[in-house]
Amino acid sequence: MNRRKIVNAAFWTGCLVCLAVVVVPTVWMLTEVIGRALPVFDWHVLTENTRGNGGGLRNAIIGTVVLGLGVLLVGGTVSVLTGIYLSEFATGRTQSLLRGAYEVLAGIPSIVLGYVGYLALVVSFGWGFSLAAGVLTLSVLAIPYIAKATEAALGQVPTSYREGAEALGLPVSFTLRKIVLKSAIPGIVTGMLVALALAVGETAPMLYTAGWSNTAPTGELTHSPVGYLTYPIWTFYNLPSQSARDLSYNAAFLLILFVLLLILIGRLVSWRSRRHAEG
């Protein structure tokens, strides 16, 4: 009996230690960023473009949002279709090959993807530092995560849903659209938002493909560099100018708010989907 108590206490102690290893650095990071950003935060950061090592972050905020929407449009479409194919149609060797391909892609360092994007899109295709190059590179980065989330979400839909639809003579396309996908939406949306949060937090791929611009995106897909929030975080932090360092703190703070907003949106979509399903 004493041995069982000791093992139980050791188990829970190990769980608490592992939890602390995750939570403590996160809380420390958030406290440091917020503690440095709030004292120097000013609303002009949201309304002015970056000027040299100062100014605001309007161009970077708009650029980050545009890049994120591009990733959802390009990467999200490809990933969701890939996940649907793997879960519902692919079998045998084809399924194993495609699944292995996106798992390998997930293990490639982001800086390598950025360099490949630079050589292929910026140099070979002649697009220059641009929105299109940045979106495609981040989409490749996000595809494995969204595809995996889509496949997993579809795999959790009860088989009885498909069997019932088949027994009623419903077409496969109707079953997939109206029954299976509807039930898997929370998992798919969560995967997309997690991948989007990872993508917008990248710096190295963007340095290679999107470059940097002190102005808001013009709408041109090529030969038009784009601003993004991770650039001032990485570049301005070590500059001697106090205004530059303040801008880096503000950029980090806004990026954290952006990620938290994505989490809240994901929770809201999951809650509404569950409520609709129960209703």
Automatic annotation (TrEMBL):
InterPro entries: MetI-like (IPR000515), MetI-like_sf (IPR035906), Phosphate_PstA (IPR005672), Phosphate_transprt_permease (IPR051408). Gene3D superfamilies: MetI-like. It comes from Mycolicibacter kumamotonensis. Residues 61-266 form the ABC transmembrane type-1 domain. This is Phosphate transport system permease protein PstA. GO terms for biological process: phosphate ion transmembrane transport. Belongs to the binding-protein-dependent transport system permease family. CysTW subfamily. GO terms for molecular function: phosphate transmembrane transporter activity. GO terms for cellular component: plasma membrane. Part of the binding-protein-dependent transport system for phosphate; probably responsible for the translocation of the substrate across the membrane. It is a multi-pass membrane protein. The lineage of its organism: Bacteria, Bacillati, Actinomycetota, Actinomycetes, Mycobacteriales. CDD domains: TM_PBP2. Its main location: membrane. Keywords: Cell membrane, Membrane, Phosphate transport, Transmembrane, Transmembrane helix, Transport. The keyword Transport applies. NCBIfam families: 3a0107s02c. The chain crosses the membrane at residues 9-30, 60-86, 98-121, 127-147, 179-200, 247-269. SUPFAM superfamilies: MetI-like. It is found in: Cell membrane. It holds the Pfam family BPD_transp_1. PROSITE patterns: ABC_TM1.
